[in-house]
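Each record in this resource describes a single protein on a pair of labelled lines. The shape at a given residue is found from the number at the same position. The record below illustrates this layout:

***
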Amino acid sequence: MHARPLFQTIASAFDYFLFDQYGVLHNGRTPYPGAAQALARLKQRGARIVILSNSGRSGAYNAERMATLGIARELYDDFVTSGDVAAAMLRNSEVPVPLTRATRCLVIGSSPDDGFARELGMSDTDDGAAADLVIITGSQSPRIAMNAYADRLRPAAERQVACLCSNPDQLMLVGDATYPGAGEIADLYERLGGTVVRIGKPFPAIYTEAAQRLSAPRPADILCVGDSVEHDVAGAHRFGAFAALVRTGILADLSEQELAKECAACGHVPDFIVSGLDA
């Protein structure tokens, strides 16, 4: 594990970057110190930057939202989310569910109505007993308790209704606090007897899509910058890229010993560790 406090020193060796958003660029409410400036410096020297996020919403939606937080669209080249990849898989029939109004989709999202099903031509339902497909795009914890999610999902899980989780994050960062994320709800669906297909980091499809948009010659030319060993570091290494762990997100409060245990549990050690993007 190589601790290098200056992000710009590390970044100078790369021309292609995949940045996580939550926990790296912002905390869901405000940007982290130096985040926008770090992106601007990279763009000024001609680097290619794609934001890569385990968000169930589209890249376009997330880009607009991030702009309201002070991270402008011109600071990066593209925005790829697990929601984009999930929608593409459904449109390409990689999941055997017809995209028609007759298909009733139970969406578990970060807002009461995220429009995911309707954008794909399906109908919404709140009834797990009537659902033909379950899509988990986000979490409304702590407003909705896990036992309430269990009550809602159990009828679908018991009928073995197909489930896509387009946001595998176990934890959700809101300000300085963490809550159960969409990945935890997907685990709950499995415990209830259902089967889940997970899309996003650390799985390869989202990295393949992002690398194509970067136009990187090879994965080893890419530096992935994230705040999670389980998702960002593991995903980067499985894809063949380098990984920089930023200590501003979900692991910010871990001691060095606790971080070492986290890396051992995940089986991946970041190539670089930085305290933030402001140096």
